[in-house]
Amino acid sequence: MRTATPAAATTTTLLTEDQLALVETTLDFAEEHLAPHAVTWDQEKHFPVDVLRKAADLGLGGVYVDEAAGGSGLTRSDGVLVFEALASGCPSVAGYLSIHNMVAWMIDQYGDRAQRARWLGPLTSMDRLGSYCLTEPGAGSDAAALSTRAERDGDAYVLTGVKQFISGAGASHVYVVMARTGGGGPDGVSAFVVERDDPGLSFGANEKKMGWNAQPTRQVVLDGVRLPADRLLGAEGDGFRIAMNALNGGRLGIAACSLGGARSALDRSLVHLADREAFGAPLLDAQALRFELADMATELAAARALVRQAAQALDQRDPQAPQLCAMAKRFATDTGHSVADRALQLHGGYGYLTEYGIEKLVRDLRVHRILEGTNEIMRLIVARGLTGALR
Questions:
Q1: pLDDT score, position 1
Q2: Residues assigned a catalytic role
Q3: If you placed Cys at 262, which of 38, 339, 363, 378 could pair as Cys (CB 3.0 to 4.6 Å)?
Q4: Which stretches of the chain score pLDDT less than 70?
Q5: Any bridge partners for residue 218, and if so which?
Q6: How far is CA 299 from CA 179, 223, 295, 296, in A?
Q7: Alpha-helical segments (H) within the chain
Q8: How many whole angstroms separate alpha carbon 222 and alpha carbon 229?
Q9: Element (H or E) spanning 30, and its range?
Q10: Are the C-beta atoms of residues 120 and 69 closer than 8 Å to each other?
Q11: Main-chain dihedrals φ then ψ at residue 46, nearest 5 degrees
Q12: Distances (CA, A) of 345 to 15, 160, 272, 340
């Protein structure tokens, strides 16, 4: 059994016995299978598919998928615990798992019986990996302006367009693609399931990135991809609603990953400051450094509370859940990156060295403030919720 550090211990507050066991099991997995390899995977740009399938053995390939379909049937409140724990080992791998679980949830939630039978088993076992395809080269924050088209042709749809910044692209087998079947705006968007071997599907070069190097990020190019009509997920025109509902959960997943990565940085800082001496005393005895650690721990605790509140709201279908998810994503990802950056400073020159793993955490957590909706868009969502009641 692990001896919890003060920072790690804060995750167990007010959890049920089942949730405590879930956290313990996931932390054990992260400690054994992710943390020892995280720096090497980052340097070698290695996507550890074999380790993802080990995670699936624990039920982490279908966290929110119904148990009858092979999933774990967990709540969003459970899920944020899972992804925080995973990210303590490697935020990049945990972030991909969050996205894969978005895809599995979308098919479970909106797919018909045949679609669920076809894709959920392979997705929950992670024999097949999933990717979420919304962003385009010219449509990032303004997702409703996407230009990828799906033209109806008899009993088929023909998809043409390019998706940008797609996590897992090339390695993934199943792509949930948002494409325009109607006019402009959100009502003209539909969702489709595309498979890697579908003729006309190809991928751009693996992007050279600041962080998140343990997973591929590539363009997904659809050049007249012809799909049978049964690849439509939900009804025509439902795609934008499906995509946004998925993003509510995805934002919580990335927020939780920020908490896990930042908690790891804080834990490492405690150990480093206890081990290092300056002016004849351990650095941990310096009051100024203790105050910095206290602020970091306090900010993480506040972010964690907001993430869990948002997850509970999503579980309860609270009408305010989208705004709370946006708040949680904005606050937790800003806080997580700030804590990791301060942890690097507390390590001094050692924090800048690859082998200590702190600089990797700073790089990995930086992108969390951009993906699943930039933090500027999160502010817009919150502001709309506040001012909408006045109109």
A1: 35
A2: 372
A3: 339
A4: 1-13, 389-391
A5: 166
A6: 40, 47, 6, 5
A7: 6-9, 17-29, 38-44, 49-57, 76-87, 91-110, 113-124, 239-275, 287-315, 321-346, 358-366, 375-388
A8: 16
A9: none
A10: yes
A11: -100, 130
A12: 33, 47, 12, 9
What is the C-alpha to C-alpha distance for residues 201 and 186, in angstroms, rounded to an integer? 24
Report yes or no: 168 and 187 within 8 Å, Cβ to Cβ. no
Residue 212 CB neighbour total at 10 angstroms: 24
- Residue 147 in tokens: 């230009």
User: Among positive and negative, which fits the CA dihedral 325, 251, 54, 260?
Assistant: negative
C-alpha pair distances (Å), 344 with each of 23, 228, 335, 357: 26, 52, 14, 9
pLDDT tens digits for range 149-160: 999 999 999 999
Share the mean pLDDT of the chain: 94
Q: For tokens 């982490």, what's the residue?
A: 60
Q: Which of 77, 140, 141, 143 is nearest to 321 (CA)?
A: 77
DSSP state of 198: S
Sign of CA dihedral 350, 352, 353, 354: positive
CA distance 293 to 330: 22
Helix (H), strand (E) at residue 367: none
- Residue 73 is which amino acid? G
